[in-house]
Request: fold
Amino acid sequence: MSFLRIAGLAALVGGILRLVNIVTTSLPQNALAAIYFVTDALLLTGVAGLWFSRRAAMGGAGTLGLAIFVVGILVVRASAFGIGNYPLGAMIALTGLAVYSLDALVKRYMAIWAPSCWLTALPPAVTVGFLPSGHLSLVGLSAVLFGAGFMLAGLDLLRDSRTALAGA
Reply:
């Protein structure tokens, strides 16, 4: 199995898990921690596949965006140990995806669907910070768009892996 295929499956499953995570908050804390760790590992693998498959076409902004995403996920994971906090890490990760998405859309090195989802996920996430508590619907909307973006990116990577095999 090629790296692109593994990365595509990881992004797809990571996106699905991100959607499922919206409704798993009542699970025991240790189960949630394991699910979130696996989700993040899958998303990071998917992002590695995006970089690997598009590195020749993307510019510095796209690479920087993916690097910012990785830093954001690391901040999210560090928050489990009391270092940093989840909302900050999530905002850093989403900002990185927005930078990558703008680069991808301007330079047209991937289908528009995943970058469009990631860009659309940013405004509700930012808005939550300025509203009184209780606006979980915006958090949910952002999470759905974030997860859908990874699912679509995974499908793109899987399609790319088939094209690479056909050309080999």
Q: What stands out?
A: The mean pLDDT is 92.
